[in-house]
Design a protein that fits this description.
This protein has about 450 residues and is of the alpha/beta class. It has 2 domains: about 325 residues, Rossmann fold, CATH 3.40.50.12780; about 100 residues, GMP Synthetase, Chain A, domain 3 (2-Layer Sandwich), CATH 3.30.300. It contains 12 helices and 20 strands. It has a 9-stranded mixed beta sheet with strand order 4-3-5-6-7-8-9-14-13. β15 and β16 form a beta hairpin. The longest helix is centred in the first third of the chain and has 22 residues. The structure holds zinc ion (ZN). Zinc ion (ZN) binds next to loops. Zinc ion binds next to loops.
Length: about 450
């Protein structure tokens, strides 16, 4: 075996049988740690009547309840100690790093890290970067300021852990960044795909060709979904290999492409990934079939993350990879299943309301769906804006028909409120019509 190819040859090429035994042992340990240190998990598992002793096989893991971002927000909101609340898995004085998720859906999740958990993070990143071919001879240029988001901090510190020379370029403008990459003879970089294209455009204006005038041979793109076409085009413009990894603030970085570029290897000795059916999120799907990703992080005791539903749609690939790693791979994430979520314990897709209103209610010009929570009660409301031609006298009839149709289609009871003409924003992206205010 060419051990040079692996950050840890033993763990990355372990026979699957042993790997799965290791995962089972680590899952039980992680679950026990979560119960002992987080009132949120303790309560959740007590209610479900499941203990670490009940988990005798990896199949048994599915008896453990799922959690998601909205649960995490509730476990932090107004809970001690702020802002980490009931998810803090260590004494507060051990926390040495504060960050939060990028909060595309409102309130962020606050993420505490200790020196030890930060090492866990960096270690998982080292597997990712090493697999992409980053080595101690690389000069890595970081064209971003880091702020409170973890991604680029980890990129920086993990590349240093590998022995790379890291050049932070956050304070420069794009031209300055390109000139610096030339000056330090950078061999690698990390950026969002959008910014990768922007740099290529600016370089062109400067009379430079990134593929010829720079020495960058590999880049890690992150922060946005990237299609195979986008990747290819970036590779062409930069004359570099483009790699991806997957991670969230809650779960750490748990999969990354290797130099074979056939998919992303799941770091299975550090994480348990389940890909479950889209309808009930309870049964594993077959390789190649689309499902929803659920992740458990074995390390990072400062923020236990057990069976975290990512709501990301992905497919698993069990074909052996020529690189020699024995872990399963996932193909690129095919987008978020945001639009399938749990309301009052029932799986719900806001698209079903779109369909009802679009096909059966020409009287409604625009609408918004709002989910709120007070205590354990979830309230669901459709705000509907009637077309100008609709008379007020018919509102109550439309309202009762709509409530009935929604109930029939989704099994959920919604309230309907009429709002005045042109009071709702016009949305270009359908999904924005759904306001999930439950974690606020
Ligand atoms: Zn591979």
């Amino acid at each position: 075996m060419d051990t040079e190819k692996f950050w840890n040859p033993v763990l990355e090429t372990m026979p699957r049988e042993n790997l799965e035994k290791l995962q089972l042992k680590k899952f039980k340990r992680t679950m026990k740690y979560a119960i002992d240190h987080s009132p949120f998990y303790q309560r959740k598992y007590e209610e479900a009547g499941v203990t670490p002793e009940d988990i005798k096989t990896l199949e048994d893991v599915r008896r453990v309840p799922l959690v998601d971002k909205s649960d995490f927000k509730l476990a932090q909101k107004d809970k001690d100690p702020p802002p980490f609340g009931e998810l803090l898995g260590v004494p507060l004085e051990e926390v040495m790093s504060f960050s939060h998720t990028s909060g595309t859906t409102g309130t962020p999740v606050y993420l505490p890290d200790t020196a030890e958990s930060f090492e866990d993070w960096k270690e998982s990143w080292c597997y990712c970067l090493y697999g992409m071919g980053f080595r101690n001879t690389d000069i890595v240029f970081m064209p971003f300021p880091y702020n409170v988001y973890l991604g680029f901090w980890l990129g920086h510190l993990s590349a240093q852990k590998l022995g790379c020379t890291v050049v932070p370029g956050g304070g420069l403008d794009t031209r300055g960044r390109i000139r610096t990459m030339q000056e330090v003879e950078a061999t690698a970089t990390m950026c969002t795909p959008t910014y990768g294209f922007h740099m290529a455009k600016v370089a062109h204006e400067m009379g430079l060709d990134l593929a010829k005038d720079l020495k960058v041979s590999k880049m890690l793109v992150m922060g946005e979904p990237v299609s195979p076409e986008t990747k290819q085009e970036l590779e062409r413009q930069w004359g570099a290999d483009v790699y991806e990894h997957i991670g969230t603030g809650e779960s750490c970085a748990w999969a990354a492409s290797c130099t074979e570029k056939r998919g992303m290897h799941v770091l299975e000795h550090l994480f348990l990934l389940e890909v479950l059916d889209r309808e009930t999120v309870s049964k594993p799907v077959a390789p190649g079939e689309e499902g929803i990703g659920v992740i458990t992080t074995f390390g990072r005791r400062s923020f236990p993350c057990v069976r975290f539903n990512l709501w990301d749609i992905m497919t698993i690939n069990e074909e052996p990879c020529p690189c020699g790693r024995t872990s399963k791979m996932i193909d690129s994430v095919q987008g978020r299943a945001d639009m399938v979520l749990k309301l009052r314990g029932v799986l719900f897709s806001p698209a079903s309301i779109e369909e009802i209103i679009g096909t059966k209610f020409p009287e409604i010009a625009e609408y918004e769906i709002v989910a709120t929570r007070s205590g354990t009660r979830e309230d669901l409301l459709v705000k509907a804006e009637p077309s100008p031609s609709v008379s007020e006298s018919s509102h109550s009839d439309i309202k009762s028909r709509l409530i009935e149709e929604i109930k029939f289609k989704t099994n959920l009871s919604f309230d309907v409120e009429f709002v005045s003409t042109n009071s709702l924003p016009r949305y270009e992206i359908k999904s924005r019509r759904f306001k999930d205010l439950r974690g606020k």
